[in-house]
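User: Can you predict the 3D structure for this chain?
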Amino acid sequence: MTPYDKREGKIWYNNDLVDWNDVKLHVLSHGLHYASCVFEGLRVYDGEIFKLEEHTDRLFHSAKRMDIKIPYSEEEINQATKKIVSVQNVKNGYVRPFAWRGSEMMAVSAQKTKIHVAITTWEWGTYFDPKLKTEGIKLNISKWRRPAPNTIPWDTKASGLYMICTLSKHEAERDGYTDSLMLDHEGNIAEATGANIFFKDKNGELHTPIPDSFLDGITRRTIIEIAKSKNIKVNERKITQKELSSFVGCFLTGTAAEVTPVSKILEQNYEVCSLILDLSSSYEKLVRKKKAA
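Assistant: Here is the predicted structure, written as structure tokens:
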């Protein structure tokens, strides 16, 4: 795979289209040293950006929570996102807008730093191996937990929140798993390293953790809407680790993960059932609906 710093094309950078290889970030940028960075991840399907406005709204929410004032309006970011996707001619790919503090100050305090904004996009297939969409992925359980809500701005997509996700993912892959299940600060089920999680019980109902210390994903909300439209009951509640053996199905949701079945959590096996495959199919139809219409 071509390294991301060696790719070609343009990046939208502080309201300019800059050659991919000419984009520069100073090594003393506050965002690099103190995680003063917020970001989003969007998908492009058949040339159309899925839920652009919702992602931009969340980017601005994250920035506000991190005391970062983005020097553009939401509409300007929406238009810039559409522009770079068009310039790069991305048909089925990924978009990464992000904002960070610059290098004017070097210490914890950062009131006088310039806020930089960039938007990048590239062709990108499935997050997990495509065959795992039908076979299911395997999860371990991370030793790292999502922090308590009074310790960090948990409802943001901020860089610092993903440090323990990287550690968890690395450990899982070293041990032969695809990803890692993370618990919350109370020991309840939270999410995977970059996706929300759902369980199916023996009665065909879905259960998903309440997002009170981790991100309430846009894909998560979309799947809940799809499930309810099919008269599938969705229970948003606290889920304990002891309950894992009572469920018969499991899947992840996320912009990158889309709808990905889980076949195993440690020694607990789950069925990649028709309900999960149907939700995945319905989601696929939804994200490509403009071309299908």
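The longest helix spans residues 52-65. The chain has a mean pLDDT of 96.
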